[in-house]
Amino acid sequence: MVTQIDATDPGAERALAEFIAFVGEGVGVDAQAAKPQRLPWLHGTKWPGFAGGDPTLRFEDKSAYMRKGFPKSQLDAIHRQLTRTDYANSAALLLIAGYGGRINSVPSEATAVPQRDSVLKLQFLAFWNDPAEDDKHVGWVREFYQDVYSGSGGVPVPGRVTDGCFVNYADKDLSDPRHNKSGVPWHSLYYKGNYPRLQRVKATWDPRNVFRHAQSIEPAARP
Which InterPro entries would you find in this protein's record (predicted)? Predict the structure, then answer.
Protein backbone atom coordinates (compact mmCIF):
# COMPACT_ATOMS: atom_id res chain seq x y z
CA MET A 1 0.00 0.00 0.00
CA VAL A 2 1.26 3.45 -0.89
CA THR A 3 -0.14 6.44 0.96
CA GLN A 4 0.31 10.09 0.01
CA ILE A 5 -0.44 13.09 2.19
CA ASP A 6 0.01 16.85 1.85
CA ALA A 7 3.39 17.52 3.46
CA THR A 8 2.56 21.20 3.98
CA ASP A 9 0.07 20.20 6.69
CA PRO A 10 1.92 20.67 10.01
CA GLY A 11 0.41 17.41 11.30
CA ALA A 12 1.18 15.36 8.19
CA GLU A 13 3.77 13.01 9.66
CA ARG A 14 1.65 12.26 12.73
CA ALA A 15 -1.46 11.69 10.60
CA LEU A 16 0.44 9.32 8.32
CA ALA A 17 1.79 7.30 11.25
CA GLU A 18 -1.66 7.09 12.83
CA PHE A 19 -3.19 5.94 9.54
CA ILE A 20 -0.61 3.18 9.05
CA ALA A 21 -1.18 2.01 12.62
CA PHE A 22 -4.96 2.01 12.13
CA VAL A 23 -4.78 -0.02 8.91
CA GLY A 24 -2.62 -2.65 10.60
CA GLU A 25 -4.65 -2.83 13.81
CA GLY A 26 -5.94 -6.30 14.60
CA VAL A 27 -4.33 -8.09 11.64
CA GLY A 28 -1.76 -9.89 13.77
CA VAL A 29 1.40 -8.66 12.05
CA ASP A 30 3.55 -5.59 12.48
CA ALA A 31 3.49 -2.99 9.72
CA GLN A 32 6.73 -2.68 7.78
CA ALA A 33 6.73 0.87 6.48
CA ALA A 34 9.36 2.45 4.27
CA LYS A 35 10.78 5.78 5.38
CA PRO A 36 8.45 8.59 4.22
CA GLN A 37 9.77 10.76 1.38
CA ARG A 38 8.99 14.39 0.62
CA LEU A 39 8.51 14.92 -3.11
CA PRO A 40 7.68 17.84 -5.40
CA TRP A 41 3.96 17.96 -6.17
CA LEU A 42 4.30 16.93 -9.84
CA HIS A 43 6.60 14.03 -8.99
CA GLY A 44 4.20 12.79 -6.35
CA THR A 45 1.21 12.86 -8.70
CA LYS A 46 2.75 11.14 -11.71
CA TRP A 47 4.37 8.10 -10.09
CA PRO A 48 3.54 4.68 -11.62
CA GLY A 49 1.57 2.93 -8.89
CA PHE A 50 2.45 -0.62 -9.93
CA ALA A 51 6.23 -0.09 -9.90
CA GLY A 52 7.02 -1.52 -6.50
CA GLY A 53 5.77 1.52 -4.60
CA ASP A 54 8.84 3.65 -5.38
CA PRO A 55 7.60 7.09 -6.48
CA THR A 56 11.13 8.22 -7.38
CA LEU A 57 11.46 5.85 -10.33
CA ARG A 58 11.81 7.25 -13.83
CA PHE A 59 9.81 5.48 -16.51
CA GLU A 60 8.76 5.38 -20.15
CA ASP A 61 5.38 3.99 -21.14
CA LYS A 62 3.65 3.35 -24.47
CA SER A 63 0.26 1.75 -25.01
CA ALA A 64 -1.82 -0.18 -27.52
CA TYR A 65 -5.26 -1.75 -27.74
CA MET A 66 -5.66 -5.18 -29.35
CA ARG A 67 -8.85 -6.29 -31.07
CA LYS A 68 -7.45 -9.69 -32.04
CA GLY A 69 -4.61 -11.97 -31.00
CA PHE A 70 -1.04 -11.12 -31.95
CA PRO A 71 -0.14 -11.78 -35.59
CA LYS A 72 3.13 -13.66 -36.16
CA SER A 73 5.01 -10.51 -37.17
CA GLN A 74 4.21 -8.90 -33.84
CA LEU A 75 5.02 -12.03 -31.83
CA ASP A 76 8.38 -12.23 -33.61
CA ALA A 77 9.10 -8.59 -32.76
CA ILE A 78 8.09 -9.07 -29.11
CA HIS A 79 10.38 -12.10 -28.78
CA ARG A 80 13.20 -10.28 -30.52
CA GLN A 81 13.04 -7.25 -28.24
CA LEU A 82 12.58 -9.17 -24.98
CA THR A 83 15.57 -11.44 -25.69
CA ARG A 84 18.03 -8.77 -26.81
CA THR A 85 21.52 -9.19 -25.37
CA ASP A 86 22.54 -5.54 -25.87
CA TYR A 87 20.03 -4.20 -23.33
CA ALA A 88 19.85 -5.22 -19.68
CA ASN A 89 17.12 -4.00 -17.35
CA SER A 90 15.19 -6.28 -15.00
CA ALA A 91 12.46 -3.62 -14.84
CA ALA A 92 11.74 -3.53 -18.58
CA LEU A 93 8.66 -5.38 -19.75
CA LEU A 94 5.56 -5.76 -21.89
CA LEU A 95 2.48 -5.66 -19.67
CA ILE A 96 -0.54 -7.44 -21.17
CA ALA A 97 -3.87 -6.70 -19.49
CA GLY A 98 -7.12 -8.48 -20.25
CA TYR A 99 -9.79 -6.13 -21.58
CA GLY A 100 -13.43 -6.24 -22.56
CA GLY A 101 -16.44 -7.34 -20.55
CA ARG A 102 -18.60 -4.45 -19.36
CA ILE A 103 -16.04 -2.01 -20.76
CA ASN A 104 -17.03 -3.12 -24.24
CA SER A 105 -20.75 -2.72 -23.55
CA VAL A 106 -20.48 1.09 -23.83
CA PRO A 107 -21.00 2.52 -27.34
CA SER A 108 -17.83 3.82 -28.98
CA GLU A 109 -19.25 7.32 -29.37
CA ALA A 110 -20.64 7.58 -25.82
CA THR A 111 -17.46 8.85 -24.14
CA ALA A 112 -14.10 10.34 -25.07
CA VAL A 113 -12.62 6.81 -25.08
CA PRO A 114 -13.79 5.05 -28.27
CA GLN A 115 -12.01 1.68 -27.87
CA ARG A 116 -15.01 -0.50 -26.98
CA ASP A 117 -14.35 -3.81 -28.71
CA SER A 118 -10.82 -4.63 -27.55
CA VAL A 119 -9.64 -7.84 -25.88
CA LEU A 120 -6.25 -6.67 -24.58
CA LYS A 121 -4.51 -3.46 -23.56
CA LEU A 122 -0.71 -3.35 -23.71
CA GLN A 123 1.95 -1.29 -21.99
CA PHE A 124 5.54 -1.17 -23.24
CA LEU A 125 7.48 -0.17 -20.12
CA ALA A 126 10.87 0.49 -18.63
CA PHE A 127 11.71 1.76 -15.13
CA TRP A 128 15.03 3.06 -13.87
CA ASN A 129 16.61 5.41 -11.29
CA ASP A 130 19.61 7.13 -12.88
CA PRO A 131 18.81 10.20 -15.05
CA ALA A 132 22.03 9.54 -16.95
CA GLU A 133 20.39 6.38 -18.35
CA ASP A 134 17.34 8.16 -19.77
CA ASP A 135 18.36 7.83 -23.41
CA LYS A 136 19.14 4.13 -23.07
CA HIS A 137 15.83 3.13 -21.55
CA VAL A 138 13.63 5.51 -23.53
CA GLY A 139 15.41 4.28 -26.66
CA TRP A 140 14.64 0.65 -25.86
CA VAL A 141 10.93 1.32 -25.37
CA ARG A 142 10.82 3.29 -28.62
CA GLU A 143 12.60 0.57 -30.57
CA PHE A 144 10.38 -2.13 -29.07
CA TYR A 145 7.20 -0.24 -29.98
CA GLN A 146 8.32 0.66 -33.47
CA ASP A 147 9.42 -2.92 -34.15
CA VAL A 148 6.07 -4.40 -33.07
CA TYR A 149 4.13 -1.88 -35.19
CA SER A 150 6.57 -1.57 -38.08
CA GLY A 151 3.82 -2.65 -40.48
CA SER A 152 1.68 0.40 -39.60
CA GLY A 153 4.20 3.20 -39.36
CA GLY A 154 5.46 2.48 -35.86
CA VAL A 155 2.13 2.91 -34.05
CA PRO A 156 -0.97 0.71 -33.46
CA VAL A 157 -3.24 2.28 -36.08
CA PRO A 158 -6.96 1.50 -35.57
CA GLY A 159 -7.83 -1.47 -37.76
CA ARG A 160 -8.69 -5.15 -37.68
CA VAL A 161 -6.02 -6.14 -35.11
CA THR A 162 -5.04 -2.98 -33.23
CA ASP A 163 -7.12 0.00 -32.12
CA GLY A 164 -4.91 2.91 -31.21
CA CYS A 165 -3.64 4.04 -27.81
CA PHE A 166 -4.88 4.76 -24.28
CA VAL A 167 -5.03 8.50 -23.63
CA ASN A 168 -4.14 8.17 -19.92
CA TYR A 169 -0.68 6.86 -20.89
CA ALA A 170 0.35 10.12 -22.53
CA ASP A 171 2.93 9.59 -25.27
CA LYS A 172 4.33 12.68 -26.96
CA ASP A 173 6.06 10.50 -29.57
CA LEU A 174 2.66 9.93 -31.19
CA SER A 175 2.77 13.59 -32.25
CA ASP A 176 6.28 13.29 -33.71
CA PRO A 177 6.59 12.17 -37.34
CA ARG A 178 10.02 10.70 -36.55
CA HIS A 179 8.27 8.08 -34.41
CA ASN A 180 4.75 8.06 -35.88
CA LYS A 181 5.14 7.50 -39.61
CA SER A 182 1.62 6.20 -40.12
CA GLY A 183 0.07 9.47 -41.25
CA VAL A 184 -2.59 8.98 -38.54
CA PRO A 185 -2.57 11.95 -36.12
CA TRP A 186 -2.14 11.46 -32.38
CA HIS A 187 -5.72 12.47 -31.64
CA SER A 188 -7.08 9.74 -33.92
CA LEU A 189 -4.97 7.16 -32.09
CA TYR A 190 -6.49 8.28 -28.79
CA TYR A 191 -10.02 9.43 -29.68
CA LYS A 192 -10.72 8.24 -33.26
CA GLY A 193 -13.92 9.91 -34.51
CA ASN A 194 -14.72 11.48 -31.14
CA TYR A 195 -12.09 14.22 -31.45
CA PRO A 196 -14.22 16.83 -33.30
CA ARG A 197 -16.90 16.62 -30.59
CA LEU A 198 -14.23 17.03 -27.90
CA GLN A 199 -12.94 20.07 -29.75
CA ARG A 200 -16.40 21.63 -29.64
CA VAL A 201 -16.57 21.03 -25.90
CA LYS A 202 -13.12 22.56 -25.50
CA ALA A 203 -14.17 25.62 -27.51
CA THR A 204 -17.17 26.09 -25.23
CA TRP A 205 -15.45 25.69 -21.86
CA ASP A 206 -11.86 26.73 -22.57
CA PRO A 207 -11.87 28.84 -25.75
CA ARG A 208 -8.60 30.55 -24.84
CA ASN A 209 -6.85 27.18 -24.37
CA VAL A 210 -5.74 28.10 -20.85
CA PHE A 211 -5.59 24.47 -19.73
CA ARG A 212 -3.18 22.82 -22.14
CA HIS A 213 -0.22 20.51 -22.53
CA ALA A 214 1.67 18.92 -25.40
CA GLN A 215 -1.29 16.73 -26.40
CA SER A 216 -4.29 18.61 -25.09
CA ILE A 217 -7.39 19.04 -27.22
CA GLU A 218 -7.25 22.07 -29.45
CA PRO A 219 -10.40 24.24 -29.52
CA ALA A 220 -12.38 23.96 -32.74
CA ALA A 221 -12.20 27.06 -34.87
CA ARG A 222 -15.38 29.11 -34.54
CA PRO A 223 -17.23 29.92 -37.78
Answer: BBE (IPR012951)
